[in-house]
């Protein structure tokens, strides 16, 4: 589910937004001070930002400009939420980079509809991409397409890289072999289930050269990246 960041210094409005957004099924993050917004956006990469114009320390207008000038954040939809209702104010807000402009007092159903519309406009190709994933001592660098185990560079093939990306971005989540086939190879290509085991075995081999095995084979289920002891099924060896 999408995560909505609420940037609002009026507690009553922030609580109203939080309640209605979570009731609608969204996750929420609330920030009340302007000087904390940028670091929170960089850390959480929200799906959409509800941004109040008038904030302590730095205005929502200036924050909007800063976010739009950041290549890693510029595609996050921003809805400006403000009491400034004059047409010229709307022009200024949209010119600063806001995708939409809602004036206070606002209709909650209308705001939810605008949020849904703006989220629909953002495709997965334009959404912010996380630069790096880590799990224990395993680091996956999305920019350089490299894997490290501590300080050691781990050479992995493109398929193993995609498998590790899926596992490390969803730690402790169990993926069946069919799940992995669908996510890594897609529905349009026929690949045997056994192929998943072969690539998992290759990934294990290169990763475990520099540390303990965190790829779990869960009995009668599938695979997971996990650092807890769980019941595993025997690893079936297959020809490369």
Outline the structure in words.
The chain folds into two domains: 3-121, 3-Layer(aba) Sandwich (Rossmann fold), CATH 3.40.50.2300; 132-225, Orthogonal Bundle (Arc Repressor Mutant, subunit A), CATH 1.10.10. Helices cover 37% and strands 20% of the residues. The protein is built from eight helices and twelve strands. The chain has helices at residues 11-23, 37-44, 60-68, 87-95, 108-121, 158-168, 177-185, 193-207; strands at residues 3-7, 27-31, 48-52, 78-82, 100-103, 132-135, 138-141, 146-149, 152-154, 175-176, 215-218, 222-225. It has a five-stranded parallel β-sheet with strand order 2-1-3-4-5, with helices on both faces. Strands 6-7-8-9 form a four-stranded antiparallel β-sheet, with helices on one face. A three-stranded antiparallel β-sheet has the order 10-12-11. It is elongated, with a radius of gyration of 22 Å.
Order of helices and strands: EHEHEHEHEHEEEEHEHHEE
Poorly predicted parts: 230-240
Radius of gyration: 22 Å
- Net shape: elongated
CATH class of the largest domain: Alpha Beta
Based on DSSP secondary structure assignment, what is the total number of beta strands?
A: 12
Residue-averaged pLDDT: 84
- Return the structural class: alpha/beta
- What is the percentage of strand-forming residues? 15-25%
Number of helices: 8
User: Per CATH, which architecture of the largest domain?
Assistant: 3-Layer(aba) Sandwich
What can be said about the biggest beta sheet?
5 strands, parallel
Spatial order of the strands forming the largest sheet: 2-1-3-4-5
What is the distance, rounded to the nearest whole angstrom, between the alpha carbons of the first and last residues? Answer: 38 Å
**CATH homologous superfamily caption of the largest domain:** Response regulator
Helicity level: 25-40%
What's the domain count? 2
CATH topology of the largest domain: Rossmann fold
């Amino acid at each position: 589910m999408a995560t909505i960041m609420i940037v609002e210094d009026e507690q009553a409005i922030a609580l109203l937004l939080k309640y209605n957004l979570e009731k609608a099924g969204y996750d929420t993050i609330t920030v009340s001070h302007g000087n904390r917004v940028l670091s929170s956006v960089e850390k959480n990469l929200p799906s959409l930002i509800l941004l109040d114009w008038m904030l302590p320390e730095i205005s929502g207008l200036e924050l909007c400009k800063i976010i739009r000038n950041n290549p890693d954040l510029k595609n996050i939809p921003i809805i400006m939420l403000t009491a400034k209702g004059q047409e010229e104010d709307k022009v200024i807000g949209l010119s600063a980079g806001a995708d939409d402009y809602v004036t206070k007092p606002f209709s909650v159903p209308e705001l939810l509809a605008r949020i849904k519309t703006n989220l629909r406009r953002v495709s997965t190709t334009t959404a912010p991409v996380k630069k790096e994933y880590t799990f224990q001592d395993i680091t996956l660098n999305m920019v350089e397409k490299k894997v490290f185990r501590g300080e050691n560079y781990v050479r992995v093939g493109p398929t193993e890289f995609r498998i590790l990306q899926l596992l490390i971005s969803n730690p402790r989540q169990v993926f069946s072999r069919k799940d992995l086939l669908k996510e890594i190879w897609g529905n349009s290509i026929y690949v045997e289930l056994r192929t998943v085991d072969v690539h998992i075995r290759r990934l294990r081999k290169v990763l475990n050269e520099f540390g303990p095995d965190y790829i779990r084979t869960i009995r009668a289920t599938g695979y997971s990246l996990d650092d807890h002891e769980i019941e595993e099924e025997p690893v079936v060896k297959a020809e490369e």
